[in-house]
């Protein structure tokens, strides 16, 4: 079975969804045979390529409700074993990190990419990592087994720039406007950081090939542009899901 996960490093619900999905995968009898591939998505493609304090960025977008949003996801993350330290989070354009993830996939395979995704999310949300900084990204990649010189050389150029932008465009053409979105076998899609039990049921259903053709949409309604109820959405869009 192949599962493609559309997500952004800077999306807190993507981190929650990753954690819950991996817990479901560990409980799934055939979990070792499931290939997981991360696909790029940017919630804010126009974000400047410079590190900015998360608190300031979120307050500028959502005003007084920003603090409550952080408190809610931090409390939920703690229940999942995730350390969200929003006081240290630095916002930056995520394109460079997505290019590195694609590099990891191409050069080292899906398992290395999954490890790197986890390291980037843990660093971004809990350790003040700048996901636009070459040194920080290189250290993260080396920590999960990638070669330092190869990574540094890749980050110094513009390799995979067009390919990653093409993947992001393809995601939007598929109708993906909110993340995380999990696409199973290229046919069934589940949106949002669902409960572990939900992911486990979907894995079992797809494995038995009993799901109806089309999209399994278990998402909840969300406010456009916000990160709530399991998903982070692109501003001024609806929360739809799609599968190729």
TrEMBL record:
<protein>
    <submittedName>
        <fullName>Predicted dithiol-disulfide isomerase, DsbA family</fullName>
    </submittedName>
</protein>
<keyword id="KW-0413">Isomerase</keyword>
<dbReference type="GO" id="GO:0016853">
    <property type="term" value="F:isomerase activity"/>
</dbReference>
<dbReference type="GO" id="GO:0016491">
    <property type="term" value="F:oxidoreductase activity"/>
</dbReference>
<dbReference type="InterPro" id="IPR036249">
    <property type="entry name" value="Thioredoxin-like_sf"/>
</dbReference>
<feature type="domain" description="DSBA-like thioredoxin">
    <location>
        <begin position="3"/>
        <end position="202"/>
    </location>
</feature>
<dbReference type="InterPro" id="IPR001853">
    <property type="entry name" value="DSBA-like_thioredoxin_dom"/>
</dbReference>
<dbReference type="Pfam" id="PF01323">
    <property type="entry name" value="DSBA"/>
</dbReference>
């Amino acid at each position: 079975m192949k599962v493609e996960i559309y997500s952004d490093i800077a999306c807190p619900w993507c981190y929650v969804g990753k954690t819950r999905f991996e817990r479901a995968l560990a409980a799934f009898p055939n979990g070792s045979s499931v290939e997981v591939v991360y696909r790029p998505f940017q919630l804010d493609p126009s974000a400047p390529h410079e590190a900015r304090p998360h608190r300031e960025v979120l307050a500028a977008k959502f005003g007084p409700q920003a603090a409550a949003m952080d408190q809610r996801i931090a409390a939920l993350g703690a229940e999942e074993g995730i350390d969200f330290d929003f006081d240290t989070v630095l916002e930056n354009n995520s394109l460079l990190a997505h290019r590195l993830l694609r590099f990891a996939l191409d050069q080292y395979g899906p398992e290395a990419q999954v490890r790197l995704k986890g390291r980037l999310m843990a660093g971004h949300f809990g350790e003040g990592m700048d996901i636009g900084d070459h040194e920080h990204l290189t250290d993260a990649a080396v920590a999960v087994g990638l070669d330092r010189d190869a990574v540094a050389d890749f980050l110094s150029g513009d390799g995979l720039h067009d390919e990653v932008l093409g993947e992001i465009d393809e995601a939007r053409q598929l109708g993906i406007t909110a993340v995380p979105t999990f696409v199973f076998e290229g046919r069934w899609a589940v949106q949002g950081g669902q409960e572990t039990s939900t992911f486990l049921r979907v894995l079992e259903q797809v494995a038995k090939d009993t799901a109806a053709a089309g999209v399994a949409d278990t998402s909840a309604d969300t406010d456009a542009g916000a990160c709530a109820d399991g998903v982070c959405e692109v501003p001024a869009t609806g929360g739809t899901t799609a599968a190729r």
